[in-house]
Amino acid sequence: MRNLKRILTGTAAGVALMASMGAANAETWRYAFEEAITDVQGVYATKFKEEVEANTDHTIQLFPYGTLGESADIMEQTQAGILQFVDQSPGFTGSLIPEAQVFFVPYLLPSDSKELAEFFRTSKAINDMFPKLYAEQGLELLTMFPEGEVVMTTKEEVTEPADLNEVKFRVMTNPLLVESYQAFGATPTPLPWGETYGGLQTNIIQGQENPMFWVESTKMYEVTDHITFTGHNNFTTAVMANKDFYDGLSDADKKAIQDATDVAFEHIVDYQKGLTDSSLEKIKEEKPSMNVKVLSKEERKPFKEAAKQVEERFIEMTGESGKEILDQMKADLEAVSE
Ligand code: 6CS
């Protein structure tokens, strides 16, 4: 082989042939996500791509939101093996993996971002239990990471559950989120993302929830007038690979993917420092009349009270398996809060 290399590199045609031989196993892998390239999932995917391309012969082609359809479409394409990687948030995975709805038990996750990141890094529920559930659906769960505190944006001010009465509130297509907003006093309306802006514009819906960077980048402030920090959740997302594809990789490629996953996780945690505040500033510049309300401890009480029945519903909906995940998550959260 060394002799062949010496012979080939002696001529221009030989160099070209060597390059193509080197590339014989190189593949292009497709990775779709639910946001734009400049949003949190896009920043994560870009870092992941950079790392994989630097450490393997392979190339990753990124497909931001809208290029291949809605979240449900990219998940279907990944399960079918058309895509190799997908970022789908548990908010859309609830019907496929009911236990993933645990991320919608209100007031479960901590608000402190350092504690939250450490939870995602160390959680047995996330790193040991969820991968088995995703594997049953033909998916290799690579990571889960937080995308920021969820706020409500609405047409009318919200300070208590009674303000949500008769408010058609868009939620991701997730049965437990429907339960949550019912418990909060609203009329939950599950919709794919693509119908949200238009729904608010035409008053078919009057509210939605999401992290601040998304409220800013998707211009939710153009179609709603109030932002409420209720502290009830932090947005979680998940990145996975098609399992048959992943299982068929060499150990070196698997390691490169795992390493890229870890590097991109730390990058995205770091990237989000101050993001809620800077997004809020941009919104205030674009629309100074936007009303921003941070609910006090006292004002949060009735929402917290309602959360109890949502937790009970989660257990009813998911049985023993869901309860085990919830209990483990609580233990994992306890461990990082110490
Ligand atoms: O609410 C949604 O549907 C969207 N929210 C975020 C933060 N990312 C993607 C998802 O589609």
Structure in a nutshell:
It is found in: Periplasm. This protein has 338 residues and is α/β, with parallel strands linked by helices.
Walk me through the structure.
- 50% of the residues lie in helices and 17% in strands.
- The chain is of the alpha/beta class.
- Strands 1, 2, 3, 4, 5, 6, 7, 8, 9 and 10 form a 10-stranded mixed beta sheet that branches.
- α7 (124-135) packs across α14.
- The longest helix has 41 residues, at 297-337.
- It binds ligand 6CS.
- InterPro entries: DctP_fam (IPR018389), TRAP_DctP_sf (IPR038404).
Beta-strand residue percentage? 15-25%
Helix content: 40-55%
State the domain count.
2
Number of strands: 10
Query: Gyration radius, to the nearest Å?
Result: 22 Å
Largest β-sheet summary: 10 strands, mixed
Mean pLDDT: 94
CATH topology of the largest domain: D-Maltodextrin-Binding Protein, domain 2
Listing every helix as H and every strand as E from the N terminus to the C terminus, the arrangement reads HHEHEHEHHHEEHEHEHEEHHHEH
Which CATH first-tier class of the largest domain would you pick? Answer: Alpha Beta
Compounds present? Answer: ligand 6CS
What is the CATH architecture annotation of the largest domain?
Answer: 3-Layer(aba) Sandwich
Low-confidence stretches: 1-9, 14-22
Structural class: alpha/beta
Number of helices: 14
CATH superfamily of the largest domain: Bacterial extracellular solute-binding protein, family 7
Pfam families: DctP (PF03480)
Main location: periplasm
Keywords: Periplasm, Signal, Transport
Protein name: C4-dicarboxylate ABC transporter
